[in-house]
Amino acid sequence: MSLDLTLDASEEARFLNKISRFVKRLVKKTHFTQRELEVCLLIYYKMLRDDEGKLGMLVSRHQVDAVFDASFGITDSATVGRIFTALDKSVTTHVSMETWARMLSLFLRGSLDEKISHCFQVYDISGEGLIRREHMMVLLKGCFIKQHEEDAEEDIKDLTELIIRRMDADRDGAISLDDFREAVHNAPEMLECFGQALPDRAHVYAFSRTFLDRVSKF
C-alpha cells in the first residue's frame, strides 16, 4: 500500500528501502510509530525532490522556513532562527532528515519536559545556560504590538521584573533551566512566556491530521 499517492509506488518503495535501517534507529528517538516516521520522512523526501532536481542533497533551511510559515504559522524570521538553533546547534543552511524528524516529533508529540527544554534553549540567546534580564527584554520586545517607544520600554521592564519574581527561584537575577522547569510545572501557561517557540495547537492539529495515526485536537 502506497503511503503517498503523489509519488510513484516504485520510487516510494526504493526510498523506504534505502532508509529502512535509519528508520529503525530513529523510531527509538521519536514519538512516532514506524509508519508515521516513514510518512514524516517521505515529506522530507518530497521537499528534496521538488528542489529543482537537487536530489541526494539536504533540504535547505529556506524550504523548511516555508513549512514554518505555511504549516506552523511561525513567520518571524528571528523566532524561526532561534528555534532552529535550539534544534540543531551546528551552523548550517540545511536541515538533515534526523533534525526534521526530531523537530516534528517535538512539535506534534513532545512531552512537557521536552518542550520546556526546547523553549529554554530558544530563549537562551547567549547559549550560557541562563536567561538574563537583558535577554528577556530583547525577547519580550518582539511580543509587543508597536506603540510609543518610551511606553513600550516601560511595559517591557515591568513585565521582565514580574517574570523574574515569578521564575527566578534562587534570586540570582537570571533564570536557569531548573528555575524555568519548576515555574512551568507549577504554571504551564508560562511555557512560552518570552515569545513563540512552538507552533500553536490549531496548527499542530491541522498538520498532524495529514499523517499521524493518533491525533489529539487539544
Instruction: Count up the helices.
Output: 11
Mean pLDDT: 86
Question: Remind me, CATH topology of the largest domain?
Answer: Recoverin, domain 1
Q: Count the beta strands.
A: 4
Approximately what portion of the residues adopt beta-strand conformation? under 5%
Radius of gyration: 19 Å
- Secondary-structure element string: HHHEHHEHHEHHEHH
* Main CATH class of the largest domain: Mainly Alpha
Low-pLDDT regions? none
The structural class is: mainly alpha
| Outline type | elongated
Any idea how many domains?
A: 2
Measured distance between first and last alpha carbons: 31 Å
Topology:
Layout: H1 9-18, H2 20-26, H3 34-49, E1 59-60, H4 61-72, H5 77-87, E2 94-95, H6 97-109, H7 112-123, E3 130-132, H8 133-141, H9 149-167, E4 174-176, H10 177-186, H11 201-208
Antiparallel strand pairs: 1-2, 3-4
Write up this protein.
The chain has 218 residues and is mostly helical. The protein has 2 domains: 9-110, Recoverin, domain 1 (Orthogonal Bundle); 113-190, EF-hand (Recoverin, domain 1). The chain is built from 11 helices and 4 strands, in the order H-H-H-E-H-H-E-H-H-E-H-H-E-H-H. The strands form 2 sheets. It has a two-stranded antiparallel sheet. It has a two-stranded antiparallel ribbon with strand order 3-4. Helix 3 (34-49) crosses helix 6 (97-109), helix 5 (77-87) packs across helix 7 and helix 7 crosses helix 10. The model has no long low-confidence stretch (mean pLDDT 86).
